[in-house]
Design brief:
- By secondary structure, the protein is mainly alpha-helical.
- It has 3 domains: 146 residues, no CATH class; 61 residues, no CATH class; 127 residues, no CATH class.
- Helices cover 47% and strands 8% of the residues.
- It has 14 helices and 6 strands.
- The strands form 3 sheets. It has a two-stranded antiparallel sheet with strand order 1-2.
- Helix 7 packs antiparallel against helix 8.
- The longest helix has 30 residues.
- The radius of gyration is 26 Å and the shape is globular.
């Protein structure tokens, strides 16, 4: 259901009695034991209340900025004044003031924020795509986007906004993609004590290529460290008992990348991006142009890579989908590839953020109960949630394919034994 912007209170300042009552309530809240508020319902209520208070704070900051009371103190602007009086980093204070100004262009989002239906992250995301070239489309579609913010978890909502921006201003998003590509840079220099310091700035596709391989190698090093510590100690080790810290493994993984590049076979096969063209997908599901990690791309961003990328075609149709034998025990071949394309956003558990490339193909109706090995009965699941739902009779409905909250924690890497990673 589309939202409409209610008429918001235009009072220029909060009544002091209201602020006094708020301080009193916050005192009572602070006196409560954290365990008293540690249940799921209390956390949801606190999150909603925090969003409402944050909205009131931001709107008041906007009024303060417009009225110019900060000038009497000799400040250059409301952001500078707020940074001093609220003891904030200047950049954070100025972002707050800027967001308050942008609220004037987002009345539906402002109203939803005031009610606690969305939070500052949603409003900031919408403000980031509002500009002269998208203003008319935003005025038309703002209520729809706010509905999506209330319906989806944030990463899914952010992708919706990215696709909306691409449709509302295709030339602008292509220009942004080209500008990102032009900003790529790597800086590495030796310091006075012979250490090396650096930084890098990569466009989304280049960054995905580097980050995926770097993370893969870091995982290999972690597994080696874990196996070594377990053999050395004769028991499951603690994280601080591994021979390297997480930071050291990340550094060693970068060195390993360089070593493997230097010693690669002369006639080895150079890795290349794989672009999947989804035929018929738009008709049934809508436009899609994104990386495997979910980053939405402008079509123009793919052009520099076309001469070196592999291209595959995936045909989506209501009937005649590509399948291997429905009696096969494991997903493989075209069926596995189809699942990875369809469920590219990762593990199907509602509270999991594991990327699809780290997931396994899982039967919705278990194979041991007669479930066929088909696309319709398949989904991507990280190793933990695949094992977890197989070992438990029912995890709040997730076992039979229904998206319902369970007691699972956020995803952690599927290492041999450890429950957590540093």
């Amino acid at each position: 259901m589309a939202l409409t912007a209610p008429v918001l209170d235009e009072a220029p300042r909060f009544d002091q009695d209201v602020l006094e009552r708020l301080r009193s309530l916050l005192d009572e809240l602070s006196d409560l034991s954290p365990q008293t508020l540690g249940d799921a319902d209390s956390i949801r209520s606190l999150a909603r209340s925090f969003a409402r208070l944050d909205a009131a704070y931001t709107r008041a900051t906007g009024s303060f900025d417009a009225e110019g009371d900060w000038a009497g103190a000799g400040a250059h602007g409301a952001g500078s004044w707020l940074a001093v009086e609220a003891h904030l980093p200047v950049a954070d204070a100025r972002r707050r003031v800027n967001l308050a100004r942008r609220l004037r262009d987002l009345p539906v989002a402002e109203a939803a924020w005031v009610r606690g239906d969305i939070n500052a992250a949603h409003v900031t995301r919408l403000a980031g795509v509002h500009r002269e070239s998208t203003a008319e489309a935003m005025a038309r579609d703002e209520a729809i986007l706010v509905d999506k913010a209330m319906e989806f978890r944030y990463d899914h909502f952010s992708r919706v906004v990215a696709y909306w921006e691409g449709l509302a201003d295709p030339d602008g998003t292509d220009d942004k993609a080209e500008a990102k590509r032009a900003r790529r840079d790597v800086y590495l220099t030796k310091t006075f004590d012979d250490m090396y310091l650096g930084r890098m700035c990569l466009d989304p596709i280049s960054g995905s290529v580097v980050a995926t391989e770097h993370e893969r190698l870091e995982k290999v090093l972690f597994e080696a460290d874990w196996a070594e510590a377990k053999a050395r100690l004769g028991r499951t080790p603690l994280m601080d008992e591994l021979t390297r810290t997480a930071a050291q493994r990340r550094a060693d993984a970068l060195v390993e990348m360089a070593m493997r590049s230097r010693t690669a076979p002369a006639h080895g096969i150079r890795p290349a991006p794989l672009f999947t063209v989804m035929v018929g997908y738009e008709t049934m599901h809508g436009r899609v142009c994104e990386l495997a990690n979910g980053t939405v791309m402008a079509p123009g961003a793919l052009l520099p890579w076309l001469d070196q990328a592999y291209i595959e075609r995936a045909v989506f149709s209501p009937k005649g989908r590509v399948e291997v034998s429905a009696q096969a025990r494991l997903f493989g071949g075209a069926t596995l590839r189809a699942l990875r394309i369809r469920d590219r956003h990762g593990c199907s558990h509602p509270y999991c953020f594991a990327p699809a490339w780290r997931c396994q193909a899982d039967h919705i109706q278990p194979y041991t109960e007669g479930g066929p090995t088909t696309q319709e009965n398949g989904r991507m699941a990280c190793g933990r949630h695949n094992r977890d739902r197989s070992q438990r009779a029912d995890v709040d409905g997730w076992r039979d394919g229904r998206s319902a909250p369970g007691d699972a924690e956020d995803w952690v890497e599927d290492d041999p034994d450890p429950p957590l990673r540093d």
